[in-house]
Here is the input.
Amino acid sequence: MIYTFSFRDVFAQFDTLLNGAVLTLQLSAITMVAGLVIGIVGALARSWGPLPVRLTAATYVEAIRNTPLLIQLFIVFFGLPGMGLRLDATPAAVAALSINLGAYATEIIRAGIQAIHKSQVEAGLALGLSRLQVFRYVVLFPALKVIYPALASQFILLMLATSVVSQISVPELFHTASVLQSRTFRDFEVYIVAAGMYLAMALIFRLAFALIHRWVFQR
Amino acid sequence: MIREVNSLDLLYLIMAARWTLALTAMAFVGGGLLGMIVLLLRVVPLRPLRWLAMGWIQAIQGTPLLAQLFVFFFGFAIFGYRVSPWVAAGVAFSIYASAFFAEIWRGCVEAVPRQQWEASAALGLGFGQQLRYVIVPQAFRISIPPTVGFLVQLVKNTSLASVIGFVELTREGQITTGATFRPFLVYGIVALLYFLICFPLSQWSQHLERRLNVAHSH
Here is the structure.
């Protein structure tokens, strides 16, 4: 059997795919900011908090890192309404993605904090800074600098993982592709084009992270 | 009709976890073999082959696994093969894993000091002999902790195979939810089962890494 590829139907509705890609970028950006904040707070809690806080943070990290994102998403979207918390698809997706990324970010930033020499912290304390001030002015920035590459690649993995939220009908790129597939029956072509768009976004993010790195850390 | 969650459901979920493990094993073996080939192309001193391997890794690490699953699921149909979700998922996961294994193991090969290559070349070993007798034995030890770590990612990512109709733990959870309408409980159990598979692997990986670091700090 000879198959003739036809991308015409797909490109005729390329603007719907672009709209999906815009939502993917928005989801990724919001999640990255939220994940970074959760990660910084989580890493602080896990490294310097009192024992119960440390244990809570450790449980959070292990629970999230050892279960699939898809199941976390299902629990937030399908499970929480039974507990009295009903979220629409997009807020549920943002919540699940942020909780997920937050756990990975916590672990990555914690590794950065551990890489900061203890004498730095002691010097900060000796200067009369409070522990929080030491964290903010002495530890955080160098720690982020050390783990920046790991964090950046985790962020790109997260951007690709946003495709999973198509399973709860958030109209992002992958969901748009599925809709287009059922409309055109050009299964292969639709998903190849969508995959190409994800690849382009991954490269754009990588470039953006490299620029941010130069702008923030190499002055 | 909606019914309660009972112990039989739990049993079905545990049985479905076997297919999660089976798919992970397929991806591990298939991805491992393919990954070794990609790694070999990636380090061979021949530029076009290196570019080919780099392109392969970029394309796979830069696209979502979900898209790869669909491309392979429908891609087979194009060439006139109607494949089962088993074959589509097995092939897609092997290809996905190959790119990550190749990158992980490349890091391990590069962690072997440059002088080891030079010394073995000075002894008159060819490229294949260098790899086989000098580099691989050293890189292998370094590679175990991150390989086990990636295995955890694989177990979790097999949940996406549910989307193309592969009945594993997540799909079984969806089926049970459909019958009982207790999503919080059912997905909670599913999450717990994944945790029971992944947590020991994660801990093992960390333990191996610590031991390796101790061995290297002498």
